Structures are given as C-alpha cells and as structure tokens.
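Pipeline run #58 for the internal structure catalog. This entry was flagged by the ingest filter as a single-chain record with no existing model, so it goes straight to prediction. Upstream metadata was stripped on purpose; only the residue string is passed forward. Reviewer on rotation: M.T. Logging verbosity set to normal.
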Amino acid sequence: MRNVKREMEHKLTKLFLILSLALHFTLYTLHEVRASFEDIEVGPRATAMGGAFISQADDASGLFYNPAGLVGLKRPEIFSAYEKMYWGLSDESSLGRQLVVLGAPLRIKGRDWGSIGIGWHALSATDLYTERTLIMGYGYPIRKDLWLGVNLRQLGVTYKETKYTKVNPVFDQGYGKTGFSLDAGAVYVRKSINVGLSVIGFNEPDMGIKYTNKIPREINAGITFKRKILDWNIGTTMVNGDFRFKTGLETWILRRNIALRGGVNVGSREYRNVAVGLGYRDDWYQIDYSLNYPVSGISGVWGSHQVSLTFRWG
C-alpha cells in the first residue's frame, strides 16, 4: 500500500512539473515590454530564500506569490513589512516599499471554507513615482492535497506634478492610472514535498497613461522539499520573455524559534542576486529580516533591507 501511495505521489508531482513547463513555454511569446510593477520579491522571508516561495506560500505574504497558499494558514494573522531598496544609490534616490496583509482561514460551524487574504503594497521613488496594489485573495482545498486560489488586484500608478511633467505631453491626460489584474494558483501538498504553480496578471492590464504599457503575465512554478529541520525551495519565473531561476533554504533551530535563510536568484540579461535572512517567532508573533544584494547590475549599493512583523491569534 505504501509503494502504491509513493508511486501515485511521484506521478502527480511529475504531472505538475510537466504542466508547469508547458505553461511556461506556451506563454513565452505572449509578453510585451514592461516598465511598471516589475517582478520584485515581497516579504523578507520569501526574499531571503531568493523569492522561491511559490510552493511554500504558507503565510499571509504568500498572497503575492500564490493565492492557493492561503489554505496553509492555520490561524488569522496580520503581516506588515518595510523595505529600503538599493541603499546607497549614488544619486541619493530614495526607494522604499511598504506592505500590509491580513489573512485568515474561514471556518463556519466547524466546516472549512478555505482562506481569505487582503493586502496593500506600495512602492515609491523619492516621491516622484508611486505604485500601489490592493489585493484580495481566496484559497480553497478541493482535496486535502490539492489547493486552488485566485486573486483580484487593483493596480495604481501616480507621477508627481513637477515643472518637467507639466510640459511633457505624456501627462496631458493626467498623472495617474488604475487597472485591475487577475491571478490564479495551485499547490499540490504532500508530507515531504509541495509543488506549486501560479499565473500573476493573467489579463495583462494596460497601465500606460498615454501610450500602451501592458503588464505581461508572470508565470511561476516551484517545488519544496520538506525535511524535519530544513526546507529547500526551487522556483522559476517567466515574465516578458525573461527567465529566472530561484532557490533557497530555510531551517529553524533552538526549539524552532529562530530561522536561518539563504537564497540565490539568477536569470536572463545577467540578473544575479544573493540573499540572507533571519527570523524569530513565538506563539503569537514573528519578526523577519532579509538582505538582498545585487551581484550584477546596480553597483556601489549596500543592498535592499527588509523587515517584517507578523501577529497571529486564535
């Protein structure tokens, strides 16, 4: 009986991987040039593991990676994070991000109705440009080992009115734009392995103020190998014709109260990042920190620093 279960697990895992790769290459040619809402890792836990969080999206921040991971929430939790991006830019630019997410399982009269998540995310560049995302997600276990999820996002961009933007014809129709985006995801869960797949921005919303600026679909696939004291995550992302490979480790030590994390993120056009992070948790709260350092591209900076605080109850 055990051999039959193990064989079934291998077949289902293989099927998920085949579907993930097929989806990657089927949609490879559908992407357009992207200027807004770039693929940037969200939350210090995921960031410290190189962004390989598609199949292990088991906390509130996973809402931004794979809505199906909401099913992994055991209790209600609120998550808040701040990131100082590319600290030490030579032009003294200030890039920062804020993030707040509320996630909770839905249990009514003893019955499990899945989980919900509501999040807000903002990125600002020296008060000259701001991106905002309001997101609502829902995850449901159609089987004990198969979770599905969907997100609805409201996206917004705003440019500051300056003496330069006043004379730029691009802004004749205003300084901002809003749009809506749809996400979908799935996670296959076993005792020692998770396999995940998500599509972010399925409808490719146009966020251009005067000219077309579609945000292309982001296709993510991942696998998590779960051991007693160590989780190993592997993920891939395909967006705008660019391919990224992500991998990271997480281990909990000292009575599973302290987390050590590390990850690597590499991809097309010499994209290279390394990351490390720490975490501490108690029964009702958790603190996480990550340092993400660009090995290529931007030079002379001290990396991006991110810290978060999570409260759980119930």
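catalog note: Residues 11-35 have pLDDT under 50 and may be disordered.
catalog note: The helical segments are 2-26, 44-48, 163-166.
status: ready for reviewer M.T.
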